[in-house]
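Sanity check

After download, print the first record. It should look like this:
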Amino acid sequence: MLPEDKNTLPPQPNFDFIMKDEPKPKRKFGLPKMTWPMLVIVIGALLAILITIFGLAFRGSGNTEKIYSLISQTAEIVRVNSLATGQAKDADTKNLIVTASAALSSQQKQLQDYLSSKKVKIDNKKIAPAASSDIDNKLKDALANNIYDQTYLNYLKGELTSYQNSLDTAYQSAGSELKSILSAAYGSTAVILSAPQLK
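Expected structure tokens:
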């Protein structure tokens, strides 16, 4: 047997665990203690905030089809203008054709550039002119009956008015960047529609 060391004390029993309070159970997820109705309200508010943020972030992205339609409309008007360029007789009508074609081609380019800036791959089938044989036939008949200029001007006025309405519809759901493009296009189209030939 080993000799006892006189300086060594026998171990003291540790009964502190009896005196201490029971440890409180940890809450899940570290959420503050709330009643169920309060928790439902907080979660609902967070969801509303997230929906608003996503709505603002992606606002205007649903306009792709509307923009395709606008580009297609301008392409069709420019197509008909190219037919009318050689057939119109009045110098003012010819000047209006050139002005309208230039303005609409510019608007078409701005809309395509906008789609490209948003990384939208442009579907050429969707922006192709919706060629109407109806207007082509009307213009052929008008040429034969010597009323080409007036028939063309009626067509242009109707199509530009329809195009303006489409611009307005797209503007209602557009984001700020697209709104400035659509607003400029609307103003430019209004200037063309104010030409004396279209009154």
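If your output differs, re-run the checksum step. Summary of this record's structure: The helical segments are 16-19, 36-57, 64-87, 91-117, 124-127, 133-144, 148-172, 176-193.
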